[in-house]
Amino acid sequence: MSGVCATNATTNETTGRTAGGAVARAAGRAAVLGSPIGHSLSPVLYRAGFAAAGLSSWSFDAIECDAARLPGLIAELGAEWAGLAVTMPGKQAAAEFATGRSARVDALGVANTLIRSGNGWWAENTDVDGVRGALHAAGVTPSGPVLLIGGGGTARAVVAALAEMAWDGPLVVAGRRPASSVIVVDLARRYGLPVRAIGLSVDEIAAAATESALAVATVPAGAADHLAGALARVPALFDVIYHPWPTPLAAAGAAGRITVTGLDMLLHQALRQFELVTGVRAPADAMRAALRKAVETDLALPV
Description:
By secondary structure, the protein is of the alpha/beta class. Helix content is 36%, strand content 18%. The strands form 2 sheets. A 6-stranded mixed beta sheet has the order 2-1-3-5-6-4, sandwiched between helices. It has a 6-stranded parallel beta sheet with strand order 9-8-7-10-11-12, sandwiched between helices. A hairpin with a 2-residue loop joins strand 5 and strand 6. The two termini are 17 Å apart. The N terminus is likely disordered.
């Protein structure tokens, strides 16, 4: 799949089916599920998208929902519900609840998108599109060694993205917990990526960074701050944190380094998700403008 962002999709006016396989819908309801949900930026992105795309009859809500409650809540939704964005802690539950799954979801075991499909729900993981789209838009060349810090669901999405991009170069995984590192390493091997694991000490990270073309940090805010100096000279940095910004990792970068943010990933995953939910092309410029305004940032967020 091309998968860079939803703006690559086209719509067949006769059938209403987009090039990405989604079916355009005249109206519908959608929401983001998660806990806590008050911080979610999905309503900002979707509502701006609805307005720009002329989808005045669409609505988007934010619903407080943990993993245990997710199956029962979704089972009660009426036919007017077209799609759902799923954030933490419900991504594994969403994948398990779905009646159909993409190859990505089967491989990763987590889903952030549920699309109404007949009497059931189809699961996708557009976090992978978020990684791919963000790296592509920033001009990162898919070549050279990659240092991946972290071992959670986002790290798995990074592995899938590298594989889909046919990344030319080995992967080094530095996880905070051995058990999660094993999962990411095994996933990389299943995707056919050359991979090895290291610890998270400053010395180990510094040694790996000297050979890396790209470093990706997927750990929570503050967890990698002590590695800022060790990663300062990496040619490209992808830090999935977007608040507060800049992170110490981003601020320590040498002049000319390519820096990709969590907001870039959020935007690009939302563009693809918007297309899957609505069946129409995502208005990327309008959604980007709304996101920048909501977080009061001057980051470029290229699309």
